[in-house]
Amino acid sequence: MKNRTGVMVAVSIILIIISSQINAYESRMLGALQQLLLGLGLVGCLLAMWKFMKSGKTKK
What we know:
Distance between the termini: 16 Å
Keywords: Membrane, Transmembrane, Transmembrane helix
Mean pLDDT: 78
Helix content: over 70%
Largest sheet: none
Structural class: mainly alpha
Transmembrane segments: 7-25, 31-50
Low-confidence stretches: none
C-alpha cells in the first residue's frame, strides 16, 4: 500500500512540473491542458496524502 502512495505522489509531482512548463500564451487549448494537468496533479497529491493519513490510523 505504501508503494502505491509513493507512485501517486511521484506522478502528481511530474504532472505539476509538466503543467508549469507549458507555454500557454499562444493557444487556449494549451491553457486548458495546463489547467487540466495541474488539477490532476493536485488531486493526486491530495489522494496520496489522504491514503497516507488513513493508513497511519489503521496501524494502531
